[in-house]
Amino acid sequence: SLLPSKRWSGVVKMGAAVGGGQGGEEEETRQAKEMAAARRRWETLIREQKIKTLTPREAGYTFKLTDKVLLDVRPSNERQKAWVKGSTWVPVFDVDTSSDLNGLSKKAFNFMIGGWWSGSSTMSFNKNFVQQVEEKFSKDTDIILVCQKGLRSIAAAEQLYNGGFENLFWVQGGLEAAEEEDFEREGSQPFKLAGIGGVSEFFGWTDQQRAQAAKEGWGYRLLFTGRLVGAIVLADALFVGAQSIGPLLQQLQPH
């Protein structure tokens, strides 16, 4: 299969919005069914050439040498780290900035189930995605869709196809599968590192950073080793400080 195998809950929800059903099953079972249905639809669109597939290198050459549009559908927290020069940005999902009770509870739940480690943010589906693309491009425009890993962009391509867009191209594997020379990059991070965050990124413990370290050498590794040593020293200092404060507070208490 050309599609990424990793399940992603945000795209599951969009699969439901595009064509998945609502059922009475348990949430996990329902989402699994919706994802399976969405994958079947996407594979059919690709197999029937209604959405054409490009590798990152092919997409890079095509974007440079033709008048095709490169549409970046990633959320703002990924886009701001690295983007393709000259690309157009319309997120199909973006970081949820709601501050109501429901939004805050979702953010707290996301943090507890691993957001603190991976840096993943709570996302909200952009209900105006197709309309925003329509405002920028006619429906006969050649559009290359790209995201970080390839899953959101194929879901976005389905949205545009259902909205009447005729010439759609999907970048298999997304920017994470691209080499730096495939596209002209802007931003502070390599393409492969734009989708990571949290504690795992800070200490260099992601698969993407390990791969980067293999290319960069010891200088890159030492940066994160220094951070780890610094964190250990800080934790030790806080522990010693906490032990010292206890007796001091007892002495200050009135007898």
UniProtKB/TrEMBL annotation:
InterPro entries according to UniProt: Rhodanese-like_dom, Rhodanese-like_dom_sf, STR11-like
Annotated signal peptide: none
Domain of life per record: Eukaryota
Residues covered by the Rhodanese domain: 64-187
Membrane-spanning parts: none
Species the sequence originates in: Hordeum vulgare subsp. vulgare
SUPFAM superfamilies: Rhodanese/Cell cycle control phosphatase
Pfam families: Rhodanese
Protein name per its UniProtKB record: Predicted protein
